[in-house]
Amino acid sequence: MTRVKLCGLRSEADVRAVLELCPDYAGFILSEGFRRSITRGNFEKLSGMLSGSGIQRVGVFVNEPLDSLVCFVSALDLIQLHGTEDDDYISLLRRFTDKPIIKAFTVKTEADIEAARVSSADYVLLDSGTGTGTAFDHSLIKDIGRPFFLAGGLTSENVGGAIDRFEPFAVDASSSLETNGVKDKTKMSAFVITVRGN
Questions:
Q1: What is the pLDDT, as a whole number, of residue 144?
Q2: For the segment 51-95, what is each residue's pLDDT rounded down to a tens digit?
Q3: Of 64, 10, 9, nearest to 32 (Cα)?
Q4: Which residues are catalytic?
Q5: Handedness of CA 32, 36, 55, 63 (dihedral sign)
Q6: Smallest Cα–Cα separation from 28: which of 66, 65, 55?
Q7: What digits encode the pLDDT tens for the residues 95-144?
């Protein structure tokens, strides 16, 4: 069964909705400078709400200095790298943690798919960018030969077809689950229900 990641959580209301909907992963933007970024203090509070739920906490980082990232590791289940981090960065990170690492790739050409295929990360995430809310050309996905998270422009209306066609390990949504920049529980629920029904 395809797993579900709801990302860009920022508030107690977001986390309460997640606790009710029970996705597999809950994502938090922990690098500064993005609309959905949260402070370390807020993350600790929200992360604590998920304790014992079985929902895995994913910290999303963009070109974060290793010493800053490592401060979060103990409260995370997975680490997502969403910048230009390479295999050397991943190798250094593994000296500090054995938590699974997801490396995100912005997909524009077949070369991007090939880069994802050979990445040393535990999982790769295929996306159109950083929180763009738009889809990339899914026809580029072929012969990737490894588990991947599919992201970018996925909604309850199109995620079922994407799962049927590409059989991703997991699907990831953030901006498509919002109304006026705030997570919308109705949209979150519809997304999770659709994925679970496939």
A1: 86
A2: 999 999 999 999 999 999 999 999 999 999 999 999 999 999 999
A3: 64
A4: 7, 127
A5: negative
A6: 55
A7: 999 999 999 999 888 899 999 999 999 999 998 765 555 666 777 787 78
Type of residue at 71: C
pTM of the predicted model over 0.90: yes
Walk me through the domains of the chain, giving residue ranges and CATH numbers.
3-196 (3.20.20.70)
Q: Using alpha carbons only, what angle is made at residue 110 by residues 7 and 27, rounded to the nearest 5 degrees?
A: 10
Least Cα distance to 83 among 65, 98, 67, 95 occurs for 65
Q: Which helix (H) or strand (E) holds 89?
A: helix 87-93
For the chain, the residue count is: 198
Helices 185-196 and 159-166: angle between axes, nearest 10 degrees:
30
C-beta separation of 10 from 38 below 8 A: yes
With a CB cutoff of 8 Å and minimum separation 6, the contacts of 21 are 6, 188, 189, 192
